[in-house]
Amino acid sequence: MPNRRDPDHRGRGGDPAPARGRLRDLPWELPHSFLGLDEQAASFADASAVILPVPYESTTSYGGGAKAGPSAIIEASRYIELYDQEFDAETALEIGIHTLPAVELTRAGAREAMVELREVHDRILDAAEGRFVLMLGGEHSVSSPAIRAHAARHDDRITVLQFDAHADLRAEYEGSPHSHASAMARVLDVADVVGVGLRAVSQEEIEVARAHDGVTMIWADEMWEDDRWTDRALERLGPKVYLTFDVDYFDPSLVPSTGTPEPGGGDWYRTLRFLKRVFAEREVVGCDVVELAPTPGLHAPDFLVAKLVYKLLSYRFQDRG
Q1: Whole-angstrom distance, CA of residue 110 vs CA of residue 58
Q2: Distance of CA 287 to the CA centre of its chain
Q3: What count of other Cβ atoms lies within 10 Å of the Cβ of residue 12?
Q4: CA-CA distance, 229 to 213, in Å (whole number)?
Q5: What does the alpha-carbon distance between residue 291 and residue 246 come to, in Å, rounded to a whole number?
Q6: Are the CB atoms for 166 and 220 separated by under 8 Å?
Q7: What distance in Å separates the CA atoms of residue 52 and residue 247, rounded to the nearest whole number?
Q8: Which one, of 265, 135, 263, 255, lies nearest residue 195 by Cα?
Q9: Chain centroid to CA 66: how far?
């Protein structure tokens, strides 16, 4: 566990923003930023990556709580070790990671919230100027404005790599075309979609997939037979990829803290091996991690998702350091 009182830990000395001079060496807690990074390691000017928390929840169809996901991920991340033995480096200090304040979207309705979030992404991508933006949700509906914002910045059609138990291809769900169950349906006009780990899909979504050459489904049971699914998934990815990660992709024995858990999902190391290949063989232009609904008193899923976010950034910048 990180030593919060070690003045050399993370190059910080526990110095909070308002404390200077004689207050610097007091035993301050870790900052409430991703990984607990201080101003130097987390400054926007020097960061290569930007964390965008979007605690939005409006169309949840079963278990709620996804709006608390971003804060739970950030809180757990403050106690994750920065050293990554896979790369023999403290990746966070090599690249710099800035954490933005959480975005509070309008409550006027799901459509209005998605329009507002698209504007948020456009403005952040303009300001980021090439920095890698990783969004923390929130329910999965927040992914479509992000995907559309990234797609608009590329001449060629991008591919969405979707880790998920569900296809999210319904035209609408419970009366809303902006439901979390329609997130991928809202981007089919601007992106191809490769879904990995699917195991809970409606007949309507099967018909949508059959009607679109740009939709590929990798079923969860395929992942447990052999590794041929990884080659098939990679073959369907274009040069530029947006990665969206619904944490119900994982088997609920690993991540029970999500609104609609499904048995038989992905495991940790198999998933990391595939992710490493994706980042090495394609250009990942943006990313989000969504649908963590924290369970009071159960911290393991929060830590797993926080570690996943850190690994995603490590793979994105694996040629650094």
Answers
A1: 7
A2: 5
A3: 21
A4: 18
A5: 6
A6: no
A7: 17
A8: 265
A9: 13
Does this model's pTM top 0.90? My answer is yes
How many Å separate Cα 244 from the centre of its chain? 6
Question: What SS3 class is residue 51?
Answer: strand
Helix (H) or strand (E) holding 127, with range, is: helix 110-128
- CA geometry: angle 89, 267, 141, nearest 5 deg: 90
Amino acid, single-letter form, for residue 262? E
Per-residue pLDDT of the chain (321 residues; tens, 9 = 90+): 443 334 344 444 455 555 556 787 788 888 999 999 988 889 999 999 999 999 998 867 676 889 999 999 999 999 999 999 999 999 999 999 999 999 999 999 989 999 999 999 999 999 999 999 999 999 999 999 999 999 999 999 999 999 999 999 998 777 676 777 889 999 999 999 999 999 999 999 999 999 999 999 999 999 988 889 999 999 999 999 999 999 999 999 999 999 999 999 999 999 999 999 999 999 999 999 999 999 999 999 999 999 999 999 999 998 864
- 3-class DSSP state for residue 219? strand
Please report the sign of the dihedral spanned by the C-alpha atoms of residue 140, residue 144, residue 145, residue 147: positive
Cα–Cα distance for residue pair 154/30, rounded to 1 Å: 38
Residue type, 236: R
Position 111: which residue type? R
CA dihedral 182, 188, 193, 197 (to 10 degrees): 20
How many Å apart are CA 131 and CA 128, to the nearest integer?
Answer: 5
Dihedral sign, Cα of residue 30, residue 35, residue 41, residue 45: negative
First-to-last CA distance in the chain? 24
On the CB side of 255, CA atoms within 13 Å amount to 32
* C-alpha to C-alpha distance for 302 and 241, rounded to whole angstroms: 26
- Alpha-carbon span 240 to 288, nearest angstrom: 15
